[in-house]
Amino acid sequence: MVDVLSQNEIDALLAALSSGEMDAEELKKEESQRKIRAYDFKRAVRFSKDHIRSLTRIHENFARYLTTYFSAQLRTFVQINVVQVEQLPYDEFIRSIPKMTILNVFEAEPLEGRMVLEVHPNVAFAMLDRLLGGSGNAAGRVQSLTEIETIVMERIFSRAFDSLQEAWKTVLDIRPRLEALETNPQFMQIVSPNETIALISLSAKIGDTSGMINLCIPHVVIEPIMPRLSQHHWFVSQKKNRAPEEVEILESRVYKTELPITVELGTSTITVHEFLQMSAGDVIKLNKKLNEGLDVRVGEKIKYIANPGTVNGKMAVQIVDTVTEEEDLDE
């Protein structure tokens, strides 16, 4: 990861330059010299920046879908956002999560291998408390799950994987399926400790409770579809040209589409009392004059102006003008 200077460090550096303790020319010489960067083979770089950007874009959509899903299920304010997408060894991920947490181990066909959705206990127990009729304030509770709590957790997170499927549709049509729900990270070994994973960290806020949701995707699982995560493939897939046969079929269906056409003789405003007193033979005064054209509506919009008449003893209208989009908007 790139080191970023804090504001205090920047102020100290500027003060050293201005006082003469550090020479700017020497800094330039050091910068121009060839630098050697250490490479840790235990932290192999398997995901390029392009892959990280694509994973970020996918899981930003995942976060939005999850926000909608949990808000509807829990009937309270829920906000989920992507905080960071990084790559690190699987062993480091296991050591970074609490000893007691909610681990949803799942598979996503046609991908081979298992992935993990880790939910911080604060968030998981707040969801559980809310689903069981509480206010959602279960922060700080750390204990093993009962059988009923386990079943409730499995059901809500199984349905949450529908959001993951929807988010990945632009890349691959996956079918996530919950395999197991664990609470102890030491009993969960889905890949070797040195295997590189993509860790998508999401911040979750449920009412006044907040915590992290981490999605662990091993490199070996998505390695077959890595080319689809490139920027080039992303934009090419968005700009697919339709075959001529598809265009012809689409045009033929559009031409055969039926649209309702109505002719409006005019409008009038009356009171409810006048409406209740109406009877056969009464005359309603409209807002149109005899020499004015009638509005012809296609669907809900006025498209033509017509004159009334008859054809073979049946009522008809004759189109005399066309209403442009600008004129329609003015109305």
UniProtKB/TrEMBL annotation:
- Report domain Flagellar motor switch protein FliN-like C-terminal positions: 253-323
Molecular functions per Gene Ontology: cytoskeletal motor activity
Question: Where is this gene product found?
Answer: Bacterial flagellum basal body; Cell membrane
The record's keywords, sorted A to Z, are:
Bacterial flagellum, Cell membrane, Cell projection, Chemotaxis, Cilium, Flagellar rotation, Flagellum, Membrane
Nucleus in keyword set: no
Task: Specify one Pfam family.
Answer: FliMN_C
Cellular component, GO annotation: bacterial-type flagellum basal body; plasma membrane
The keyword Membrane belongs to this UniProt entry's keyword annotation:
yes
Query: What GO terms in the biological process aspect are recorded for it?
Result: bacterial-type flagellum-dependent swarming motility; positive chemotaxis
What the entry lists under InterPro entries is as follows: CheC-like_sf (IPR028976), Flag_FliM (IPR001689), FliN-like_C (IPR001543), SpoA-like_sf (IPR036429)
Membrane-protein topology: Peripheral membrane protein
Family under the similarity heading: Belongs to the FliM family.
**Entry's NCBIfam families?**
fliM_switch
Name of this chain's protein: Flagellar motor switch protein FliM
Organism of origin: Insulibacter thermoxylanivorax
UniProt lineage: Bacteria, Bacillati, Bacillota, Bacilli, Bacillales
